[in-house]
Amino acid sequence: MNFRIADTFTDSLARLTGDEQKAVKTTAFDLQMNPVNPGMSFHKLDRARDPNFWSVRVSSDIRLIVHKTAASLLLCYVDHHDKAYQWAERRKLETHPKTGAAQLVEIRERVEEIAVPKYVEVEQPAPAKPVLFAGVADGDLLAYGVPEEWLPDVRAANEDTLLELTDHLPAEAAEALLELATGGQPMPAAVAVPATSPFEHPDALRRFRTMNDVEELERALAFPWDKWTIFLHPAQREWVEKDYGGPARVSGSAGTGKTIVALHRAVHLARANPEGRILLATFSDTLAHALRIKLRRLISNTPMLGERIEVHAMNAIGERLYELQFGRPRLASIDEIRSQLDAAAAAHPDHQFSASFLLSEWQDVVDGWQLDSWESYRDVQRLGRKTRLPEARRALLWSICQDVRAELQQRGWITRAGMFGRLANELPNRRHPPFDFAVIDEAQDINVAQLKFLAALGADRPNALFFAGDLGQRIFQQPFSWKSLGVDIRGRSRTLHINYRTSHQIRMQADRLLAPEVADVDGNVEERRGTVSVFNGPAPTINSFPSADIESATVGDWLRQR
What we know:
Elements: E1 2-6, H1 7-14, H2 18-33, E2 42-44, E3 53-57, E4 62-68, E5 72-80, H3 81-89, E6 91-95, E7 102-106, H4 138-143, H5 151-155, H6 162-166, H7 171-181, E8 208-210, H8 214-222, H9 234-241, E9 248-251, H10 258-272, E10 278-282, H11 285-298, E11 309-313, H12 314-326, H13 334-346, H14 355-366, H15 374-379, H16 391-411, H17 416-426, E12 437-440, H18 448-458, E13 465-469, E14 493-495, E15 498-499, H19 504-511, E16 517-519, E17 525-527, E18 532-533, H20 548-560
Parallel strand pairs: 1-5, 9-13, 9-14, 10-11, 10-12, 12-13, 15-18
Antiparallel strand pairs: 1-8, 2-3, 3-4, 4-5, 6-7, 16-17
């Protein structure tokens, strides 16, 4: 008998108290070990439309709703007695007639409206807003995963009722309708292969998961609010498991699950390559710590995988590899660089460059690109640099920076860019790379030297480099060409469009501030149109303030009130 859990079960479990959750988990483990245990108290739900819904007694008041057949036991929902029964009475498990995916469908309750005459004057209602899907054929709506009995409601939906309607529909149908309503053209849901279980459909896998053993169930119930450890959207799963002939990048706005894809990608590579060593890297130590916690949750039932997945901040792994190969680096601090720039500039009293400009020119151009000659500095593309300089002024700048380079070399200091540059030059000489695969989160903040190092690490091997990031969130780096450094993602880049962290209302407001697409220097386009959120929320309040101080004070007061 197949033992499965639904995302509706993990959602409802997370809403119970700690003691109630413990009792539910014990019952779930008992059911998995022996679904026909005579000691389990099953009760058939007479009022449920689905004849296979049963309740299982957890305690005097807690009931677990299961869907039971001869071949399958599915944990669907858990709650206090009356609420659990009411949930089951309003739903049924069915196979979609067109896509073949298993769906928990909310039963459409038809209530006749009775007009009661009122002998008072009332304001005339505003004209009804136009329906959104009048031009979409029933067959197309079904192809998007809309349940048959909800077709009339979909046909009647307008911009005021759509968000409420989508809360009652399966996720694939809701996402497709929202994309249609915002001018997009969603892809029809995949059609199940004949003789394939409806639970194996890509859309079904995002809400139902087979538990193969107690350890897998234990992991699923340990962090029920972290559904990403169990359920993936089909688009996410595709990019996690896909084979790539070269570097690949997944992008998307904040909340679309890029980090989740990166985590699952690292674990997938570890499972698919039993001898492979995987680097999972991100921008900062703080983000790396958060990734380690998430990784432990994801592989809690197979902790041995963690021995081959190393999680580091980019600078941290650079320092470690440098120390192993060349000895501990003497890294020049930012204050030391400033001091050297000031001293070098003092030798040219008529330079007229500000200290901040000198530092940014050093970091973003000279040291960032590891330029070691006047010719290379003269000819480099200064993308993102707002100040255009004639050649004579650039020659003066180079003279100042060259003095700094010489002083650092004399003192035995190295910058982080120099550290990554030396590693990149050394890697091709190694028989075996330190890592077989690298997965990089927050990739928009990777700098030139780090990308050179990663390009050398990947060495054009299939699946060697996988990036997750959002150009719209780039904070720390000037734009530059990845292709020129040996990382060509053309044809292997994808934008995620399902937002799990931001409500429809907030995202729609934020979308007004963003360009519909963002392109990198190499022409790879991140398409922002068609992004949809998976939940509703209150409409955001928009305020303006005469000054930043008043704005900060008002926000502080608002937070304290909560």
